[in-house]
Amino acid sequence: MDTKRTTFNNRLLPYLLLAPQLAITLVFFIWPAAQAVKSSFEREDPFGFSTVFVGLTHYRQLFADPNYLDALWRTAVFAVSVTVLSMMLGLAFAAAVDRLARSAKVYTTLLVWPYAVAPVVAGVLWWFLFNTSTGLLPFFLERLGIRWDHDLNGTHAMILIIIAAAWKQISYNFLFFLAGLQSVPQSLIEAAAIDGSGPVRRFFTISLPLLSPTTFFLFIINVNYTMFDTFPIVDATTGGGPAQATTTLVYKVYQDGYVGLNIGSSSAQSVLLMLIVMLLTFVQFRFVERRVQY
Amino acid sequence: MVENRPFLTFLTHAFLILGFLMVALPVYVAIVASTHDVSTLMSGPVPLLPGSHLIENYSTILTSAAAAHGLPNYSHMALNSLIMALAITIGKISISILSAFAIVYFRFPFRLLAFWIIFVTLMLPVEVRIMPTYKIVADLGMLNSWAGLTVPLIASATATFLFRQFFMTVPDELLEAARVDGAGPMKFFRDILLPLSRTNIGALCVILFIYGWVQYLWPLLVTTDPGYYTLMMGMKRMVTVQDGVIEWQLVMAGSVLAMLPPILVVVFMQRLFIRGLTETEK
């Protein structure tokens, strides 16, 4: 990693400049992470007087626990659904806005603000909209013959958090897709138009392939978002229920550790989550290198 | 525009307007619901037009109502949210710009190690290390304090990378000229680097203000004293009532208050917002 051609040659100053950032990182990030790794291999007695090294026991228990495997599968379904839904809507809006010249700015303003809505607020707004007694949507669903009840029906609860989480993320995807579309060379579009291909065909044969780096980047970012930033949506609305139907991996770490005080298992779950984030970050950064090239 | 297709343009507008209505629906319903009284809301689906209880509901939550849930007034919680968001924004920007300055403009032992330590924070979001982080903050006696609420959140790899990337594009000649004129590192930082970074700082401010404002899990863990509750905690307490009915008109009024400030920031500082979003890439 490079510095400037010329640099300052103070000895102590750079350490002083880095000190606050490094201190916070070591105390509040690296130390707790190391603690999580350590206690995932230990069992503490109920009074906290002694700890015993238990090796991989917690991990083995997790992978034998149907609840954990369910949460793993559910998180995957949740992440992929939110990602696909919000990316498709973001792309559709971006493609539409990209077609318009004068009104593009107005529509951009109309579509970006949900990014600023807090996840917990987004969750509560949709929860209210789907509320079985006062909500607007169950009233219409009833006419279609669907009895909406996310308090009892796990699938309904899952759909609810998918919609709330995807809604918030549309604007992010929209902005990145719009930036991507605007950097597609106009000459390619014109050449294709002269050769007689219409807007729809141009979109699928020129714009979409050229957007693939953006698409891949957004896929990773969205999966990351859905896995880690949607905790407030689950916590304030479904509370992981009914019957664990919306308990995601992060929610389970919180439930087992902070609420249930099962430190060993919660730590092992933390470590597994760290591995997932590392994998996602690795893929993202490997890819960002290539991303600028096209 | 490559070709003129009026019908397609019409369809595009129709699609976008429909899309906007769909995206805005939950917020519209929240605003409408915050203007009705509880009996209207309990007797069937939400009306689609505003009612007459707007002033009543908002003045209730701003001055007293939340007390029934053991909550401070919304004005108090809004102030807490503002303090937290500003402290996180200023803290993150200050420590990140200093570390980026050190990494780019100095050569010293363990420079690469420092860089990697900062990088690692990307892989350790609070959500994956809830218990041990809570324990450290508790051991340091930082529960229920402003320091506990903000300091653990201000380490930032993305902001550091953004400043590092920007500093790499600052011409070397500026540094050489400054050195010839006898400027030390801090003078160079203050008089040259800082003014040049203005736009980047502005863009980061917008993104980080939103980040700080919407924090949920961390305040939930470290504050049990209602005096430190932010608007997000208020939301949670208002909707998790053990017995009785949720007072939707107040919850919705609270939601509107909780989302208004960051939405206004995004709408009015859209250029900086988009810049900040696309350049920090996370």
From TrEMBL, chain B:
Transmembrane annotation, as ranges: 7-33, 82-106, 113-131, 143-163, 200-218, 248-269
Subcellular localization: Cell inner membrane; Cell membrane
Chief localisation class: membrane
Keyword Cell membrane: yes
Key words, A-Z: Cell inner membrane, Cell membrane, Membrane, Transmembrane, Transmembrane helix, Transport
Membrane topology: Multi-pass membrane protein
Cross-referenced InterPro entries: MetI-like, MetI-like_sf
GO cellular component terms given for this protein: plasma membrane
Domain ABC transmembrane type-1: 78-269
A GO BP entry: transmembrane transport
Superkingdom, natural source: Bacteria
Family statement: Belongs to the binding-protein-dependent transport system permease family.
Known function: Part of the ABC transporter complex UgpBAEC involved in sn-glycerol-3-phosphate (G3P) import. Probably responsible for the translocation of the substrate across the membrane.
Subunit comment: The complex is composed of two ATP-binding proteins (UgpC), two transmembrane proteins (UgpA and UgpE) and a solute-binding protein (UgpB).
Protein name per Swiss-Prot or TrEMBL: sn-glycerol-3-phosphate transport system permease protein UgpE
Gene: ugpE
